[in-house]
Description:
By secondary structure, the chain is an alpha+beta fold.
Amino acid sequence: xxxxxxxxxxxxxxxxxxxxxxxxxxxxxxxxxxxxxxxxxxxxxxxxxxxxxxxxxxxxxxxxxxxxxxxxxxxxxxxxxxxxxxxxxxxxxxxxxxxxxxxxxxxxxxxxx
Length: 113
């Protein structure tokens, strides 16, 4: 389960950001993951709860948003995003070229002093 290793690295980054901000308590963090990443949002959330248990981050809430995959449809020539079944949202076609996906990143953090 690579979600655990990623979560451990995420917690390290969050702790560094809290220290850089002069301390405080993390309340909420929003993480975005690209649609091409093999990351399961539910597994990330479960790993987060486990990793932060007994630490200063315990009680913080992790929200994970999966971002869509950008595609070009050869059928209708539309550029856009595909659905979870890799079909063009414009025509329903499946002859797609993947243009990309966003990397994982911390979108926002909410802290209290």
